[in-house]
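User: Assemble these into one structure.

Assistant: Restating your components, then the assembled model:
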Amino acid sequence: MDYLLTEQQTMIRDLARKIAQEKIKPVAAHYDETEEFAWPIMKILGDSDLFGVYIPETYGGLGGGIMDMCLVTEELSRACGGIALGYAGTGLGTLPILLHGSEEQKKKYLPEIAKGKKLAAFCLTEAEAGSDAGSIRTTARKEGDKYVLNGTKQWITNAGEADIYTVIAITDKTKGIRGASAFIVEKGAKGMDFGKKEKKMGIRASATREVIFTDCEIPAANLISKEGMGFIVALKTLDTSRPGVAAQAVGIAQGALDCALDYSRTRVQFGAPISSFQAVQHMLADMGTQLEAARALTYATARMSDSGAKAMSKDSAMAKLFASDMAMKVTTDAVQILGGYGYMRDYPVEKYMRDAKITQIYEGTNQIQRNVIAANMIKETLKK
Amino acid sequence: MNIIVCIKQVPNTTDVRIDPVTNTLIRDGVESVINPFDAYAIEEAVRLKERLGGKVTAVTMGPPQAENALKEAIGLGCDEGILVSDRKFAGSDTWATSYTLACAIKKIGDYDVILCGKQASDGDTAQVGPGISAHLDIPQVTYVKKISEINEHTAKVERMTEEGYDIVETPLPCLFTVVKEINTPRMPSLKGMMRAKAAKPLKWTADDLEADPAALGLDGSPTRVVKIFTPEARKGGEMISGAPADVAKELAELLKGEVL
């Protein structure tokens, strides 16, 4: 399908595809097996300016938007959903600064992110605060021209690897979620530590760790927006980033479908390629159709975001929900088409299936997305 | 350090097809790319510039559309591109081509190093690089796999041989042809691609070169390609089957009869 990309977007997609196919695809199994962080790939992505596609030109980027970020994320995920997350996780960690940061904060942090010299991470989730993000317990206490952070963030993508962390912490316990604030913490801050690296089912090339703050002192100037705005910053960040998760899901599904399609044309059973059997053809047709529908919804949502839409919780939740459920189904069917081979780790499809699962869980489980969608639908009815 | 890289636009070798009737390359609908070996020369030139400062000029001789190869080279880090193009160059063999490129390089003037890929993937002659150095009367080192030391006056390089490498020291200016072992070319960058899009390579014709008109194009080419053909594919051998001892015996008899 032709999505009528701009000339610049076509260039971005083609370059991301070239890097993904030539540099990432050959090493995807290696990084999945070793669980190492793919720094050599991050360097290539940085040198190629891909980290800057959604950052304004004033700050050293290419001036595109979420659509551009989605195109890159999709192409990288088509080769490896885990390595792609080093890129997408940086986008998530950067959005609070991009959307709500001060001019000084943007000038200080965005150029290095745009060049890929520094990765970013977003720290919201805690052990007792997953879907119920309002239950976070990490605190930030103002002392003179400093804030002192205490608490532990859990399952933080890029933790330990990133240099820039955007952290949501409570500045006023009496106000509930209205007492949350957002901060920028640089790696190396005194009192900031990382937990052990988590062992995961999929996206194993992505680094996931705890971020632990013990009387961690940061300059007061690192407060994003104002005190009490933390939850708004977090929600706006997630509304904006969810098309990115959808794009990751679309990419993972596309990678699995590519494998299944290739395999079906070369695998001979009963004297004919299995692609000649209607049972397999119908599976491929459904996979291709569902994938394209998810891509169309993802792009539409990303473009809506770039157009400056104010309220888009429902739309971005729909994109994330639909694309990630699609990815789980399409990758499962890809394994099915490869049969016994698909179940073996010698073939890449089982990895796509493992990688797909996380997209139904993180940045809000799909159950939470459904809550958001339904709540907004009902609210819209009441307004009429 | 001023560096000149000579590049050639060639058909993408992954989809080369030969016309079975004329035995020539089918160029219709085939994507043109920078000769793969030249990509290593470009990368090495840009790395030298990044290390030592200076300027990289990419030069190509070819039809007007070869401008795209120069733009791509600019996107990869070259500072300037020069397209040497004229109908008078048509039919040039490697002698006339290297003469023409040498004239262009003389016109550029100030250079310390000339880099070329070891050969082009379409003609495969590996003669144009050495030819340029002969016309310019400067030293050449071919099959360079590493530039180990380089300063304003001399360079020490490793020249790949079949079984190892020679260490060659040479005064500058010098022409090097490079092999793929020398580096891993970088991926293009978006900002580079945008620079490439906006770039306007210079265009030089025969009149700009102060070249001897008789030494150009078909007239200046002492060699002629008489015939290009696809060699006949080897026919399948004779299969001998049976018990190993019998097969060995039969094979020995056959060898005795037909070969020895």
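Chain A has three domains: 7-119, 122-230, 232-383.
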